[in-house]
Structures are given as structure tokens and as C-alpha cells.
């Protein structure tokens, strides 16, 4: 036999059977390709003239079934490392079934990634049940161990949340990653690995280019805010010197430095009046502006018995507040 | 059953188009026989990195895999037949492979018009026209002026699973 793919442009009648079958041309084009279990059927039709007139014959139909391709991708949905403070934090991920058949994926969240400055505790993995892209406690379903997604259709996309607890020990700007892994339940491995009979409709399942295993990292940077108080004193004795004698005025300066990342709320600076001294009324000041001693509209109070207190309110990192007051040595 | 209906519709369409066709010719056994087959072409990478292509039965196939559809024809009659046209609608789940013979006679409109792929164009839904691509091909066909008595041959086209 010879293989003949030559074309002869002789005019002939167009085969009616072929034209009609062509109307069935419709394809569900998907990322993962033709759906697993699809039957590919091929039939050739020939027309010819045997001298007694035109005739048409069909070939037998050959059929092959498309097997299941196992592929998965996983990406972090966070635009960058999220700012984390001690307590609860949420990392968001997106899983896509890149295969061509329904598949479930087993999930593992590893908080101990090499290079971490601190490790968080993974509390749970949840799925975005209401599909709004934000973790809603009590609404988004917490997956029970071993954490596994539902059977996801080909091309289906699922948002996942990894719920973590940031430890108290982390200090500002330290970083940590959590690595989420998704693996096809049917199996994973080198691309091309075959799980015989494990696919759709009893077909085979074949590992695709992703290895049917995907990992993605969600990053965190510790956003810790801290306050440092620096207290200094300047003495002025009644004789124009700096001796500590009765009548000497001691001016205390308390610098409240807020450093790190974020804001500290309701910061109040308090100080007691030292033994053997008396508060000099009307000397309390914040940033050079005098505050009244009474508990009134302004931020400060001052008295010999209770000492001084200045409420700085909400202070963002990077700012310094200066509180000053005078006492007189008894 | 669906397939059978399709063939019957096709047959009646031909009968309408050619009302003068002698019925006797339909009844006699066809001197020409078509036999279809399909193989999967797998690329085997040797340890030294060289690649060889191997034809294997398509027992395990997934999107992206390459299939070779073949049709063997044979004229077992004692007379030559003429105007031999073999038409093969592409299954919807495959596309014509990019390395198919550029001269292969194809249709991108369900078998209405034919030509080499480079001569065909597609009008998209927005009214713009673009050159037809391999993925647009709906049918392939081969046209042979005649087949001598006892002659046989093989027609193939490569396809990639969508």
C-alpha cells in the first residue's frame, strides 16, 4: 500500500454526507482542553463513480475516549506580604483545576518555611463559600482534616483562606511565609504518570505539566508598633546655677517616641511627682504648648498628689511627642 | 442510532441532488472499501535527549496529544472507479495539526467551500475577516481522479486533541 496525500483538483461533486456531518462542529474550548470522557469519533466518507453512476460509502467509525488530565495551579491572592500583628491573620489563595475533568484537591498549609523570621500557627483552611473574596467567619466553610476541596469541575476556580495566628514574639518588619500545597486526590507525580482506570468513566488519569501538585506562598510582614519614653531633667537653682538645693526648679522632659509600623491607640504619658519635690502648677506642656492642670478640654492634667498625665490619643509610628513639666525641690 | 439517522439523511440528500441515479448501483456491493483507524503519536525522549516519534494505540490520550487518523481504501472490483473523493469531517474535539500537508484540501465552513488552508479565510462575528487557521478546519478531503482495479492506498491526517 502507498500513502497518498496528494491532491487532485479535478472537479467533482461535493459529498452531501460530509457537508451534513460538518454541522455538528462545536467545541467546548477550555483551558484544560476537551472534557475527560469525551468520545472522539472519526468516520470518512467516499464518493466515486464506478461507471454505473455515483456511489457513496462510509468507513467504519473509530472511537477514542479522552482521558483525564490532572493539573492544578495555585496562586496567592494577596497583593504582597500582608501586615500582621500578634493575633489572627488571613492569607488568601486561588486554586484552579487546570485539568479536563472533575477533581478534588488535598490541601496542606506549612507555616515553617525556610527563611522565616517567625512562624505562625495555622488554625484552619477555609473556602470562600459565598464567593466574595473575603473571609467571613461563620459563613465561609472551615475544611475538616484532611483538608480537601469538593470535586471541582474542569476550569473551576476556588478561593481559599489560610487562617493563622501570629505569635507575640515577632518584632517589627520581621517576615514569615506560609506555603499552601494543593495535590490532586487522584494522584500527582512526574508529568505523564498514568493512574490506570482512575479517571472519568473508568478511563485513565494522566498527570499534566503541573505535576498535579501546586504550591504558593502567602507572605506576612510583622507590623509591630512600640513606644519608647526618654526622660531627662534640667536643674536651675535659685542662684543661677544647676545645684540641687531647696528652691531649685527641675524641668522634666519626657519624649514619647512611637516607632515601627502602624498606629498606637490611646497613648497616655503619666509621671509621678518625685518625693521631696512639689509640682509647679501651670508648667505642664505638650510640644511647648501649655496645658491646663485641670481635667478639662485639653489633653493634660497636673497636680502634686496625682502627678501628671497627658493623653496623646492615637499616635502613628514615626512621630515623637514631648511632654514637659517643672517641680520645685522642697 | 443517531449516527444511522445522520447517514440516512445524507443518503436522501444525495438522492435528491441526483434524481437520475440508477437504483441498481446502490444495491450491488461496493467494489471500493474504506477502513478507518486511529493511532496516537507519542514522543519518546531518550536519556541522551534525542526524541523519537512512536505510533501507539490510543489507549491513554489527553488534550494536547497527537492523533493520526487514517483511512485505507481499496478497489477490489474488476473496473477502475473515477472521481474518487474521500471526505473526513474532523471530530469536534480535535483540531488539524499545524504540520498537516499545506496542500491538503480543507474546508473551514462545514464543507461548503474547499481549498488549501492558506487560500481560505474566516469572517468573525464582528464582521472582520482573517486568514483561516488550522484550528478552524472542519473537514479534510482527498480527491483522486481514479483508482485502478486492485489498487489501494492510505489517506491520513494529523490532529491534536483540543
What does this structure look like?
The complex is a heterodimer of chains A (330) and B (162). In chain A, 2% of the residues lie in helices and 47% in strands. Chain A has 330 residues and is mainly β. In chain A, the strands form 7 sheets. In chain A, strands 17, 18, 20, 21, 22 and 25 form a 6-stranded antiparallel β-sheet that branches. In chain A, strands 7-9-12-11 form a 4-stranded antiparallel β-sheet, with no helix packed on it. In chain A, strands 8-16-13-10 form a 4-stranded mixed β-sheet, with no helix packed on it. With 162 residues, chain B is mainly β. Chain B has one domain. Chain B has a 5-stranded antiparallel β-sheet, with no helix packed on it. In chain B, strands 4-10-6-7 form a 4-stranded antiparallel β-sheet, with no helix packed on it. A two-stranded antiparallel ribbon of chain B has the order 8-9. The longest helix of chain B has 16 residues. Strand 1 of chain A pairs parallel with strand 11 of chain B.
Can you describe this structure in just a few lines?
Chain A contains 1 helix and 25 strands.
What is the overall shape of chain B? flat
Structural class of chain A: mainly beta
CATH class of the largest domain in chain A: Mainly Beta
Tell me what portion of residues of chain B adopts beta-strand conformation.
35-45%
The neighbouring-strand order within the major sheet of chain B is 2-1-3-11-5
Structure summary, number of beta strands of chain A: 25
Percent of residues of chain B in helical segments? Answer: 10-25%
Kindly report the greatest chain-chain contact and the residue count on each side: A-B, 66 and 79 residues
Tell me the number of structural domains of chain A.
3
Query: How many domains comprise the coordinates of chain B?
Result: 1
Portion of residues within helices of chain A: under 10%
The count of helical stretches of chain B stands at 2
Q: Bin the strand percentage of chain A.
A: over 45%
Helical segment tally of chain A? 1
Mean model confidence by pLDDT of chain A = 88
What oligomeric state best describes the polypeptide chains here?
heterodimer
Q: Roughly how many Å is the radius of gyration of chain B? A: 19 Å
Main beta sheet of chain B, described? 5 strands, antiparallel
CATH architectural grouping of the largest domain in chain A: Sandwich
Amino acid at each position: 500500500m502507498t500513502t497518498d496525500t496528494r491532491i487532485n483538483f479535478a472537479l467533482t461533486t461535493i459529498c452531501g454526507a460530509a457537508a451534513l456531518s460538518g454541522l455538528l462542529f462545536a467545541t467546548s474550548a477550555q483551558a484544560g482542553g476537551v472534557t475527560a470522557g469525551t468520545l472522539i469519533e472519526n468516520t470518512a466518507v467516499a464518493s466515486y463513480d464506478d461507471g454505473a453512476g455515483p456511489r457513496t460509502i462510509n468507513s467504519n467509525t473509530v472511537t477514542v475516549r479522552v482521558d483525564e488530565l490532572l493539573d492544578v495551579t495555585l496562586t496567592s491572592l494577596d497583593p504582597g506580604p500582608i501586615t500582621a500583628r500578634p493575633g489572627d491573620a488571613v492569607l488568601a489563595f486561588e486554586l484552579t483545576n487546570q485539568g479536563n475533568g472533575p477533581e478534588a484537591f488535598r490541601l496542606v498549609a506549612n507555616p515553617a518555611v525556610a527563611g522565616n523570621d517567625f512562624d505562625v500557627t495555622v488554625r484552619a483552611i477555609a473556602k470562600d463559600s459565598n464567593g466574595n473574596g473575603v473571609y467571613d467567619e461563620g459563613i465561609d466553610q472551615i475544611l475538616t482534616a484532611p483538608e480537601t476541596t469538593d470535586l471541582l469541575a474542569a476550569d473551576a476556580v476556588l478561593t481559599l483562606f489560610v487562617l493563622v495566628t501570629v505569635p507575640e514574639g515577632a518584632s517589627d518588619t520581621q517576615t514569615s511565609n506560609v506555603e499552601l500545597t494543593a495535590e490532586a486526590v487522584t494522584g500527582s507525580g512526574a508529568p505523564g504518570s498514568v493512574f490506570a482506570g482512575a479517571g472519568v468513566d473508568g478511563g485513565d488519569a494522566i498527570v499534566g505539566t503541573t505535576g498535579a501538585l501546586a504550591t504558593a506562598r502567602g507572605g506576612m510582614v510583622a507590623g509591630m508598633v512600640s513606644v519608647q519614653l526618654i526622660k531627662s531633667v534640667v536643674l536651675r537653682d535659685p542662684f543661677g546655677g544647676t545645684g540641687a538645693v531647696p528652691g531649685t526648679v527641675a524641668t522634666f522632659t519626657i519624649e514619647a517616641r512611637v516607632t515601627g509600623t502602624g498606629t498606637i491607640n490611646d497613648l497616655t504619658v503619666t509621671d509621678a511627682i518625685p518625693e521631696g519635690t512639689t509640682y509647679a502648677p501651670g508648667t505642664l506642656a505638650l510640644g511647648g504648648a501649655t496645658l491646663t492642670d485641670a481635667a478639662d478640654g485639653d489633653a493634660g492634667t497636673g497636680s502634686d498628689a496625682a502627678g501628671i498625665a497627658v493623653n496623646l490619643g492615637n499616635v502613628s509610628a514615626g512621630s515623637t511627642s514631648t511632654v514637659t513639666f517643672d517641680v520645685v525641690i522642697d | 442510532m443517531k449516527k444511522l439517522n445522520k447517514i440516512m439523511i445524507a443518503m436522501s440528500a444525495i438522492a435528491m441532488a441526483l434524481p437520475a441515479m440508477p437504483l441498481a448501483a446502490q444495491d450491488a456491493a461496493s467494489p471500493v472499501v474504506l477502513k478507518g483507524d486511529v493511532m496516537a503519536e507519542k514522543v519518546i525522549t531518550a536519556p541522551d535527549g534525542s526524541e523519537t516519534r512512536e505510533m501507539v494505540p490510543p489507549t491513554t490520550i489527553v488534550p494536547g496529544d497527537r492523533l493520526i487518523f487514517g483511512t485505507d481504501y481499496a478497489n477490489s472490483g474488476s473496473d477502475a472507479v473515477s472521481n474518487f473523493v474521500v471526505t473526513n469531517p474532523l471530530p469536534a474535539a480535535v483540531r488539524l495539526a499545524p504540520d498537516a500537508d499545506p496542500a491538503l484540501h480543507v474546508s473551514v465552513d462545514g464543507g461548503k467551500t474547499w481549498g488549501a488552508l492558506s487560500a481560505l479565510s474566516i469572517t468573525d462575528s464582528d464582521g472582520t475577516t482573517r486568514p483561516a487557521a488550522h484550528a478552524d478546519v472542519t473537514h479534510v478531503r482527498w480527491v483522486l481522479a481514479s483508482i485502478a482495479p486492485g489498487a489501494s492506498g492510505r489517506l491520513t491526517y494529523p490532529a491534536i486533541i483540543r
